Amino acid sequence: MIVLNDVTYKYDDSRRAALDNVSLRIERGDWISIVGANGSGKSTLVKLLMGILETYEGDVSINGIKVTEENTRALHKNFSIVLQNPDNQFVGATVEDDVAFSLENLEVPREEMLEIVDTVLQEVGMLEYKKHEPSRLSGGQKQRIAIASALATDPDVLILDEATSMLDPQGRRDVLKLVQAVHKKRKTTIIYVTHDLTEVFRSDAVIVMNQGQVRLKGSVDTIYSNPHILEENNLVLPFEIKISTALLNQSIMSYAKLVRKL
Amino acid sequence: MLSKVLIGRYIPGDSVIHALDPRSKILLTVLFMVIVFLANSWATYITLILFVLIVTKVAGLSIRFLFDGLKLILVLFIFTFLMHVFLTKGGTVLVDGGFFTIESEGIITGIFITLRLTLLVVVTTILTLTTSPIELTHGLERMFQPLKRIGFPVSEVAMMMSISLRFIPTLMDETEKIIKAQSARGSSFRMGGLKERFQALLSIFIPLFVSAFKRAEELAVAMDVRGYNVKGKRTSYRLLEWKSSDTIAIIIMILLAALLFGLRAIGL
Ligand SMILES: Nc1ncnc2c1ncn2[C@@H]1O[C@H](COP(=O)(O)OP(=O)(O)OP(=O)(O)O)[C@@H](O)[C@H]1O
Ligand SMILES: [Mg+2]
Q: Which residues does the UniProt record annotate as the domain ABC transporter (chain A) (predicted)?
């Protein structure tokens, strides 16, 4: 469980707060989506959750323990992240080296590493690409490797910061499907940052951010049925969702229910 | 054009040479370079050429392919050859052009030095063709391990090398994209006066640098959140294993050196 209490953060060189009195509660095993326009503070929130922001106001606690400068590394050890640009997070020279990178840093013995690398590559369906170099992979494949690398340390929390935004439709679908599979199988807490509102339908809760503040927090249905609030925060509900909510309003089924049915 | 350069490229394979430990391959290459300087006659050069041809075959590389790769540095070879032809004197005068002469010693030295250069280039190419950059980096890291004791940041330099190697293709792609985008806007560094060309170059380099810095920043975050700590201890996924084949390869190289000494001793 992650709890944020009135967290405010300013970058050194800026006047405006990138995070403005943010309070949140993320339960273990939940899938939380964070949506917001460019510059709304999503990535800053992610950095905070990863424990790489220093000197913020307010407090953050993980499983009931308050995060301090001393314990931050230990508390965030079970957090993994997948970033937006598949190229800029590929550290290893080949797929297997990249997956092993975090394990090497954790001083995992080699025999264990060999096993873990194969297991996670299998899980993301990329085992046959083990020896490949990143330049020979598609964007979607690179992101699947990034997910494999993130899973290698068997994280409790998996954060994806616009992990699909640079991919083609096929790549997006593959990555989203994979995240769903991981969530289901490992019961990992998922924090899914996106500005594509069609991607949030699986989440237990959606958080709408703007100007560093949390503007709306609720279920997928709540979000979808408040298009005006979304618009106030520079977000637009995709057309297909507008249609389906309009249709659903005629019937008794909720959007979440419909998705579960499909 | 650039894709034809062979030095520095790696071609995966499963030959004995590919399977050698990178440390032994680096050592063998250095030994061979020393041995090349022992050659001073037809017999010694022919021995070395035969040796390299055998190694090429064993490595599963095609000789034609290797020679195609050499074509790009042909100018360098021709230049070396001509320099010796014109500057080295001795033997019988073959051509007397008044202000210059070509003498037999000159031709022979020219051939020998060019052969020496070719041999050096070819073995280095074989090294990189059969050893992946990551293995090379890893091998070098291990070989220079003792330098850690005098405070040289061996692991950090190795990490830097491996990341640079990893980003070369990415940045090449990016350069290509920028060039395309800029020429679509009508900018070309092949045409126009010096000033226009310079501006066109800037229009490629500036976006490239900006993006490289942005990448570096993101990569630093990615490495940080994945627990990389410059001062921290790490285990290694890659295993370097000195096998009997490595010892045998070194012995073969020493025998080759002995053979060359022998040939020189009997005056061949
Ligand atoms: N390293 C930084 N230094 C200074 N200001 C920054 C830095 N990173 C972000 N900001 C500023 O903080 C605010 C929030 O940025 P953030 O990156 O968190 O937004 P975001 O929601 O992730 O946007 P995007 O959708 O573009 O990724 C913006 O005003 C941005 O300009
Ligand atoms: Mg962002």
A: 2-236
A124, part of any domain: no
Residue-number span of the structural domain to which A71 is assigned? 2-78+155-261
B157 in Cβ contact with B230 (< 8 Å): no
Q: Which residues in chain B have their CB less than 8 angstroms from residue A108's CB?
A: 235
Give the tens place of pLDDT for each residue, B26-51: 999 999 999 999 898 999 999 999 99
| Closest ligand relative to A34 C-alpha | 1
Q: Are the C-beta atoms of residues A71 and A92 closer than 8 Å to each other?
A: no
Tally the domains of chain A.
Answer: 1
What residues form DSSP beta bridges with A62?
A2, A65
Whether A110 sits inside 8 A of B227 (CB atoms) is: no
The reply to whether ipTM tops 0.90 is no
pLDDT confidence tier of residue B8, bands split at 50, 70 and 90:
low
Mean per-residue pLDDT for A236-261? 74
Q: What is the layout of strands, in order, in the sheet containing A213-218?
A: A79-82, A157-161, A189-194, A31-36, A205-210, A213-218
CATH number, domain of A30, equals 3.40.50.300
- Residue A97 near residue B134 (C-beta atoms within 8 A): yes
Residue with tokens 């273990």: A28
CB A221 within 8 A of CB A255: yes
Tokens 């022979």, residue located:
B108
